[in-house]
Every structure is written in C-alpha cells, then in structure tokens.
Amino acid sequence: MNGPHLQLEVYPDAGAACRMAAQRLAQALAQGGTAALAGGNTPRPAYHLLAEMELPWPAITLVPTDERCVPPDHPERNDRMLAEALGDRGYRLVRLPAELGPEQGAREAEALVAPLVPFRVVLLGLGEDGHTASLFPGHPALEATGLVAPVRRAPKPPPERITLTLRALSQTETALLLVTGASKREALRRLLTGDDLPPRRLTVPTLTILADREAADAMEA
Ligand SMILES: O=C1O[C@H](COP(=O)(O)O)[C@@H](O)[C@H](O)[C@H]1O
C-alpha cells in the first residue's frame, strides 16, 4: 500500500537509537514548539537524555500520543511516565483526560489538542502487534475524523484508551518512529514490507524509523 516514505536508520543498540531520538527531538524543539510523544517503555531512555539537553523549556509543550483510561497518576499512565522521565524542566505537559473514560475523555481532549497542531515533531512507538499510539490494526479508531478518538477493546491492556488520530499525528514537521528490541522485529518487518499497519496510514511525506539492530535484524539496506 502507499503511505509515507519509510526511511530506516539502524543503530547498534537500543541506547544508540534512543540517543538519536533525543537528538532529533532536541533539534526539532530548539526554538520551542509542541511535540507529541509516545508512551510505553521504549522511549523512556530517550526522554531521560532529552531532559539533560539545553532547550528553551518554558517555550516547549508536550502531549502524549495516547493515554490509557486509568486514574490520574496510575503507573500505567503515559503522562506520568513522561513527567517522571523528563523531570521538572518548566515545559508544559498537556494531560489527556483519559480518566473520564474513552468517549468523554476523547471529547474533552479534542479541545486540548486542537490548539497544539501542527506539531513540530511527533515521536511514535511500535507495538508488537503493529499498533502505534493507541491505533491498533483493524480498529475503528483508524477511521476517526477528529483529532482524538476513543478506543475500547484494545488488544493490549488496558483495553480502554484515548488516542491522537492519524489526522492529528500526521500534522507534524517531523515524524519519527522509535523501534528497539527483538520483540518488535516481526512488526517492523511487516511494516517495512508493506503490510497495512497503522504507521503506514500516516499522511506525512516521510516517516523516519530509528531502530536498533535487534529490531531491524535482516531489514538493513
Ligand atoms: O500502549 C502503548 O504501546 C506503544 C508501544 O509501547 P512499548 O512499551 O512497546 O514501547 C506506545 O508507543 C504507546 O504510546 C503506548 O500507549
């Protein structure tokens, strides 16, 4: 299928891929601006590194690409992970009100996200099943026309989430996908060989994939 040009960059290990992710984020945010940042575990080291960089932090706004419908401050919240990894640098963190449940949370988040687009940079992750943000393969949220969509019955727990949509995530100057570890190898192979996985549906011209060797395996050019 068509989709963005996928530009694969392979680094020796997860640490090096995360260092590059932090550098690309810092470049994009050098004059301030807004970034949508993946949750989950993969990007955590990149956020720790980013936090140490000299940036105009008060001019930077961050928003998670998706949020899990669990109470505020729950360990599974993506906004909690972001805040813990980045520490208090004076940036603005926009929290998506997923604690209100998928539908009400997405409705209220729509008004929060509307003033944030277009983004300077979006950093996405890739799940083992090929999901990105909380956009799962075959899920109706892929067809959403707004900026934020409710998600029920996500195959990865927790099942209730809200997510920035393809439309929101595609409004960015720079789109990055960070993929590390052997557990992501099959999803990355499928993405690169043309399977209809959610990142392929982004309407950005180029999606830069920052992968480590374990994830990229035999896919290196
Ligand atoms: O559930 C989620 O999964 C993806 C991938 O997470 P990871 O732990 O495998 O890196 C993540 O990008 C997304 O933000 C998150 O909510």
TrEMBL record:
Enzyme type, top EC level: hydrolase
One annotated GO molecular function: 6-phosphogluconolactonase activity
GO terms (BP aspect): carbohydrate metabolic process; pentose-phosphate shunt
Pfam families documented for this protein: Glucosamine_iso
EC number: 3.1.1.31
InterPro entries noted in UniProt: 6-phosphogluconolactonase_DevB, 6PGL, Glc/Gal-6P_isomerase, NagB/RpiA_transferase-like
Glucosamine/galactosamine-6-phosphate isomerase domain location: 16-201
General function of this protein: Hydrolysis of 6-phosphogluconolactone to 6-phosphogluconate.
Family according to the record: Belongs to the glucosamine/galactosamine-6-phosphate isomerase family. 6-phosphogluconolactonase subfamily.
Name of the protein described by the UniProt record: 6-phosphogluconolactonase
Protein species of origin: Rhodothermus marinus (strain ATCC 43812 / DSM 4252 / R-10) (Rhodothermus obamensis)
Gene: pgl
